[in-house]
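Q: For a teaching session next week I want to show students how multiple molecules come together into a single three-dimensional assembly. I've collected the sequence lines for a complex. Could you give me the predicted structure tokens for the whole thing so I can convert them for display?
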Amino acid sequence: MIRDYGGRVASVPPSRRTRRSLRPSSFWAIRESTARWHGIVLPLAVTAVILIGWALLSQYGKIPAMFLPSPTGVWHAFQALMADNYAADIRASITRVAIGFVAATICSIPVGLLMGSFGTVESMLAPVVGTLRYVPITALVPLLILWLGIDEAPKLAIIVLSTFFYNTIMIADAVRSVPRDFINVSYTLGATRLQVLRRVILPAAMPQIVDALRVNVAVAWNFLFIAELIAADSGLGYRLMMAQRTNASDQMFVALIIVAVIGFALDQAFRLAKKVLLPWSA
Amino acid sequence: MVGVGGLVFRDVSKTYETPGGPLTVLQDINVAVAPNEFVCMVGASGCGKSTLLQCAAGLNRPSAGTITLDGEPVVGPSADRGMIFQSYTLFPWLTIEENVGFGLSLDGVSAAERRETIDRYLGVVGLTKFAKAYPRTLSGGMQQRVAIARGLANQPRVLLMDEPFGALDAQTRIVMQDFLLEIWRTTHISILFVTHDVEEAVYLGERVYVLRSNPGRVREELRPDFPGTRDHHLKRTTAFHSVVDDILDLLREEASAAM
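A: Of course. Below is the structure for the complete assembly, covering every listed component.
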């Protein structure tokens, strides 16, 4: 039933141009969720294409094996290296990144929290953090060696310094994006400033903090190599240097692939941790 | 000051320093909310009504004048003056019951007592079965009901409400108005409710202050007196509409003057 109130609408003449409708597409859907199999099949397909392309290029490309080893050559190099206690070097590298990154994170969370919360702290730290982040960490290497020697300490220092500033700045940003009304409502519920920091700002900023850590662990992982190229007697960076001395490109490929795989695993671990520990943030 | 109960604004003004010179947002506001009273404040955007409420909450400070609650001057925010915001302010990392108990947990109230209060107020807002849910699984109207429960569970002396239903759709809004009246009848808490919706103000308030803008001042104070209990039938009566029309006339006068 139409209830007619007797209104009259001025008619709008339809356009005489012919117009096409947008055709539905699942592959070219812009910013829509795609089919589930896309997320599984497409990455595998791309990986396969790269591997096959690499194999064909090394087999038929007339590129000397010294420049481009074959996939099987790299596999054999990997097995040879593993027989030569390569696992200890992988462990050494992971340990350095873990210690350095955890130390940087433990320092940067309170500093970032204070910087993002208090304008006064921000004003005090801005000249330090704002300028030091533009100093290339590599430029600090001579000083670090002078101060800390050539043992573990300067290597850890490079990783700590490279991540601390980025972590702090990104955590401060995460804190600044906590809605003001969250803070205001807490005050009207009787919260003290300390309670607002600990029980409102920190948990509210947590998802963004975890994202910042995920991005910055990649930075730490990058700087590990600078640290290990200085003066190391263990680690993936050290092995890479050794491979360079003998032009063993197959060994270099092994190191690079392992680095990439560990980096990917770290990224996934952070995503998983966020899903498990902060289920509300999805 | 003894004997002056409720929330009282005396000659409250608020001026901001801007690059273009001082900007007066509120001028000589004299307003009161008696204990157990439901007072509404209506005005166009920019009349400073939110600023006024923030001053009462202690989140903002007046440039001149005083605000007192039961005779004590307001110096900063406190659990005595609860506030409900237009935006959704439930903490997404806490469950519904943890949100409702948040204020109590700040105060170190024992778990058993907290439990009892949470259950009572979740019952009051009719959301007991959502106790363990997270806010994002609730609709906007439900979230605002939880926010009200969280405010009430803290047992404030006055509840300040800043357009709490402003983000809700029209239908939910109507339901929430009746819900709020019901809460007020059962708890008889003092409420200062700010809105730009004239019908909402007339429907809810025992008294209604009409504010004018630039700078914000009290233009008129009305005491709509409708027989019987307020329910949605009231909105169809001539008595109701004559009050609404009076206020709309006041606001229109000003709006056309401003254009």
